[in-house]
Design a protein that fits this description.
Helix content: over 70%
GO biological process, one term: transmembrane transport
Shape: flat
CATH architecture of the largest domain: Orthogonal Bundle
Low-confidence stretches: none
Radius of gyration: 23 Å
Number of domains: 2
CATH superfamily of the largest domain: MetI-like
GO cellular component, one term: plasma membrane
Membrane topology: Multi-pass membrane protein
CATH class of the largest domain: Mainly Alpha
CATH topology of the largest domain: MetI-like fold
Organism: Notoacmeibacter marinus
Keywords: Cell membrane, Membrane, Transmembrane, Transmembrane helix, Transport
Mean pLDDT: 80
Largest sheet: none
Length: 289
């Protein structure tokens, strides 16, 4: 297919997407139909964007070292599956998941302790603010010196990046329960832990899931950037920095594609879990309407 035909195809798909969106806003569709259309619109939009990208890069003769067309990136993906899988396993399955679990878990536990102790609140929160302000390019080399060149040093960077968002959001969520509900628990002579598990933690779930979703992207970014400062000869960050030096930009985009898919799937799974856990929240009730 010529570049002009690809370009016109992309414009047509975008026009259909716009028409579907306008139609959705004008009609009273049932819940299932509306959800199907809402799912179809971003898919069509993405197809149109890829078609425009392909048509413009080929039609204008853009050098592949600046911006390769999507077809070239896809060919690189399909021909480099073993390399991409090894990089994904090193960065995501080892560093990201381990650091994410430790950072979010530690932030949650410390938030419970801080909520219980005003002394810890006064002492830890300023330190947490200081740590959260540290640049990742300054943390990563130190963690590499402390924990070595393999994935534990990248997991340590992820822990630092994910700890404070979980701490702050959990503390904010623990104050979300209303005064009337707290007074009701007090009239039942409920202990601190009974009130925590029966009232305050359920009310804090939207805040906790908000931190989990934010950290799902921060963890991946942190692990990839940390690999720029020292890693074995495998990893998504290592591959990106190496292939940029070789002007092998299609491989760089292939790694970016894998990272984007992993981050999007993580965020989507957490959003589904949030909807199942916080089904009572007004935002979820409006989504089902």
């Amino acid at each position: 297919m010529s570049a002009t035909a690809i370009l016109w195809t992309g414009l047509l798909v975008w026009a259909l997407t716009f028409a579907a969106n306008m139609s959705l806003s004008r009609i009273e569709a049932k819940g299932g139909v509306r959800r199907s259309i809402n799912l179809l619109i971003p898919i069509l939009f993405g197809i149109g964007l890829l078609a425009l990208w392909e048509g413009l890069t080929r039609g204008l003769g853009v050098p592949t070292v600046i911006l390769p067309p999507p077809s070239m990136i896809w060919d690189q993906i399909t021909s480099s599956v073993p390399i991409l899988w090894a990089d994904f396993k090193q960065t995501y399955l080892k560093a990201v998941l381990a650091g994410y679990a430790m950072g979010c878990g530690a932030g949650f536990v410390v938030a419970i302790l801080v909520d219980r102790s005003p002394f810890l609140r006064a002492g830890l929160l300023p330190v947490g603010n200081l740590v959260s302000a540290l640049p990742i390019i300054g943390i990563a080399p130190i963690m590499v010196m402390w924990f070595g060149f393999d994935w534990p040093s990248k997991a340590a960077v992820v822990v630092v990046m994910t700890f404070f968002p979980m701490l702050v959001n959990t503390l904010a969520g623990l104050t979300a329960a209303g005064r009337m509900e707290r007074d009701l628990m007090a009239t039942y002579a409920a202990s601190y832990w009974q009130t925590l598990f029966s009232l305050r933690l359920p009310a804090a779930m939207p805040f906790i899931f908000n931190a989990l979703k934010i950290n799902s992207t921060l963890a991946l970014i942190g692990a990839i950037v940390a690999e720029f400062f020292g890693t074995p000869i495998v990893g998504m960050g290592f591959r990106i920095s190496t292939e940029v030096g070789r002007m092998n930009v299609d491989m760089v985009w292939a790694e970016i594609f894998v990272a984007a898919i992993a981050g999007s799937l993580s965020y989507g799974l957490l959003a589904l879990a949030e909807r199942a856990v916080t089904f009572w929240h007004p935002s979820n009730r409006r989504a089902r309407a």
